[in-house]
């Protein structure tokens, strides 16, 4: 029976080390981590690997419920998959585990609250953007790709794949810039 930790952050600006340290301090022999959104299970390869290799009696440990996911249906599906393996899920803050009888109802309520919080954050962000636009302050998001550089490279005869490789982006991003 193993305690397996899972740490997740949404973007590269966040630091996983605090989560990893807490999981190791809780006795997790293995800690898998990834930087990917928790809004869905898409691209969450480390989590999929953990679930695939869980054995009967193992325990999946996360520091907070929102590290497991931000969508109630996804979290409930993860809990179900863990249980299908006859394993357990433990959240450290607040301390909740599927080992006890009250684990499921508490997890469900906590996850619903986390999903509502995500919606509220998005609404406040949208409201802030609308206010900034009305005041003429909003300039939009920061461009991640130099459009002029893409067009210049294309006019020099480079194809979308070569431009993407040179600039460290996807070919689709290059194609969108060229079509605009």
Average pLDDT for all residues:
88
Order of helices and strands: EHEHEHHEEHHHH
How large a portion of the residues is in β-strands, by DSSP E? Answer: 5-15%
Q: Which outline best applies?
A: globular
What about the largest sheet? 5 strands, mixed
Low-confidence stretches: none
By CATH, the superfamily of the largest domain comes out as: Resolvase, N-terminal catalytic domain
CATH architecture of the largest domain: 3-Layer(aba) Sandwich
Organism: Microvirga guangxiensis
GO molecular function: DNA binding; DNA strand exchange activity
Family: Belongs to the site-specific recombinase resolvase family.
Protein name: Site-specific DNA recombinase
Explain what the structure shows:
The protein has 180 residues and is α/β, with parallel strands linked by helices. It folds into 2 domains: 113 residues, 3-Layer(aba) Sandwich (Rossmann fold), CATH 3.40.50; 33 residues. It contains 8 helices and 5 strands; from the N terminus they run βαβαβααββαααα. The protein has a 5-stranded mixed sheet, with helices on both faces. The mean pLDDT is 88.
């Amino acid at each position: 029976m193993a305690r397996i930790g899972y740490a997740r952050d949404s973007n590269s600006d966040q630091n996983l080390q605090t989560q990893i340290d807490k999981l190791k301090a809780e006795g997790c022999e293995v800690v898998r981590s990834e930087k990917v959104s928790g809004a869905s299970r898409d691209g969450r390869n480390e989590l999929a690997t953990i679930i695939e290799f869980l054995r009967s009696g193992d325990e999946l440990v996360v520091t907070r419920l929102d590290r497991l996911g931000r969508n109630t249906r996804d979290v409930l599906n993860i809990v179900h998959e863990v249980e299908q393996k006859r394993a357990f899920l433990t959240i450290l803050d607040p301390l909740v585990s599927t080992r006890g009888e009250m684990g499921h109802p508490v997890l469900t309520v906590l996850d619903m609250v986390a999903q509502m919080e995500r919606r509220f954050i998005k609404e406040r962000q949208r409201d802030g953007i609308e206010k900034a636009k009305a005041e003429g302050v909003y300039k939009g998001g920061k461009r991640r790709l130099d459009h002029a550089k893409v067009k210049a490279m294309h006019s020099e005869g480079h194809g979308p794949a070569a431009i993407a490789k040179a600039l460290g982006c996807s070919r689709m991003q290059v194609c969108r810039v060229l079509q605009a």
